[in-house]
Amino acid sequence: MISVDDALQQLFSMVTPLNHETVPLAQASGRVLARTVTAKRDQPPFAASAMDGYAVNSDTVEPRARFDVVGEAAAGHRFDGSVTKGKAVRIFTGAPLPLGADRVIIQEDVERDGDRITVKDGLGDSVNIRPAGSDFRCGDEIAAPRLLRPSDIALLASMNIAEVSVFRQPDIALISTGDELVMPGETPGPDQIIASNTYGLKAMLDSIGAKARILPIARDTVASLETAFDLAKDADLIVTIGGASVGDHDLVGDVAVGLGMERAFYKIAMRPGKPLMAGHMNGAVMVGLPGNPVSAMVCGHVFLAPVVRAMLGLGRARTPRLTAPLANDLPPNGPREHYMRAHVADAGITAYERQDSALLNVLADANALLIRPRGDGPRQAGEIVEYLPI
Ligand SMILES: Nc1nc2c(c(=O)[nH]1)N[C@H]1C(S)=C(S)[C@@H](COP(=O)(O)OP(=O)(O)OC[C@H]3O[C@@H](n4cnc5c(N)ncnc54)[C@H](O)[C@@H]3O)O[C@H]1N2
Ligand code: MOO
């Protein structure tokens, strides 16, 4: 059995970043920028008022100083003249600063009487001006690759970028396999359960930028599995769930190999997730996940998510790990790297009592996968351990 790290490196070696495509800015959130973008203008393009008040020349500003109000500057409408000694221009937030002015006195700091203002005592020293280019300058760059967040979209819009080049989203086909499965909403027979893994994985993979599609459930027959693989043939990544172990009805590996899959590995030293398989399959990458619901989701976090990020041009890195002190003692670990369902809080990290890989309720309660290295000895409360936030 190969290690989790070896399996992940092998998966990384099977994928390359996908092609680029151009999308309108309004559809770019959550996508990965593929080409560096350059600002097309300064922001603000002119020195602008940061407050509602009066634009003046600071040489003449002192408590009780008086000014004649000679005009107005509003956002989108500059004052065409200039501000001279003893004169002020009524100004609003975002308006271009008039020539000759270098300070805005906020309206709370003046008394106004007709077209005259008098500066109150206790004036602060803020000039209330946003210099031209103080946010960004023409030519400033947003470097690719970058996962675009809502704040990036706002910045790009401000730079007058209407469309961006992004990495194509990986098309991922998710295939549940098993005679016992029906889709959520269907009526299960007495020996049947509801397919959950494809739904959990689609939610996970879509949330990190993939486009996952749930294919019809494949039954435990060669013909049904072949049909499912045929439906998946245009995908970048084909993910099967279940039928990966050693039982008489575990046909996924054999059928995939029969259809041209070149197996890179099968079985890894991981708990849960032991019967994981992967290989190239007719231009796509095929990953066969174990059927136990928690095993499939844990393999999603540990393998599928980093592979998707690599396809999106974000580099080949395992999911970042955090550390926390153990809240309780732990017994020694076995020969497989163990991803224990756990909960992190201020007091430290606590592994759940029940670690059966069928228990989705425990997984849903967990906010961490506590990582026990292969052959790790017993650990005491207070020792620092690694975990994956989930
Ligand atoms: N003799 C051995 N038996 C098993 C071994 C072993 O080494 N020797 N390994 C165990 C481990 S570890 C795992 S993990 C499972 C994996 O088995 P399969 O990948 O073949 O999965 P299935 O048998 O098809 O299903 C297992 C379990 O999960 C349920 N399942 C499957 N697909 C779904 C789905 N899409 N949604 C919800 N639940 C699903 C299925 O009904 C079974 O209960 O093998 C152990 N056995
Ligand atoms: O490896 Mo299995 O995935 O332990 O449940």
Automatic annotation (TrEMBL):
Write one Pfam family the protein is assigned to: MoeA_N
Q: Which cofactor does it need?
A: Mg(2+)
Its Gene Ontology molecular function terms?
metal ion binding; molybdopterin molybdotransferase activity
Q: Which UniProt keywords apply?
A: Magnesium, Metal-binding, Molybdenum, Molybdenum cofactor biosynthesis, Transferase
The EC number on file is 2.10.1.1
Q: Which reaction does it catalyse?
A: adenylyl-molybdopterin + molybdate = Mo-molybdopterin + AMP + H(+)
Q: Which InterPro entries match?
A: MoaB/Mog-like_dom_sf (IPR036425), MoaB/Mog_dom (IPR001453), MoeA-like (IPR038987), MoeA_C_domain_IV (IPR005111), MoeA_C_domain_IV_sf (IPR036688), MoeA_linker/N (IPR005110), MoeA_linker/N_sf (IPR036135)
Q: In which pathway does it act?
A: Cofactor biosynthesis; molybdopterin biosynthesis
Which Gene3D superfamilies does this one have?
MoaB/Mog-like domain, MoeA, C-terminal, domain IV, Molybdopterin biosynthesis moea protein, domain 2, Molybdopterin biosynthesis moea protein, domain 3
| GO terms, biological process | Mo-molybdopterin cofactor biosynthetic process
This entry carries the following GO cellular component terms, namely:
cytosol
> What is the superkingdom listed in this entry's lineage?
Bacteria
Which parts of the sequence belong to the MoaB/Mog domain? 173-310
> Where would one find coiled-coil regions in this protein?
none
EC class (word): transferase
What does this gene product do?
Answer: Catalyzes the insertion of molybdate into adenylated molybdopterin with the concomitant release of AMP.
What family is this?
A: Belongs to the MoeA family.
Recorded protein name is Molybdopterin molybdenumtransferase
**What is the primary gene name for this protein?**
moeA_2
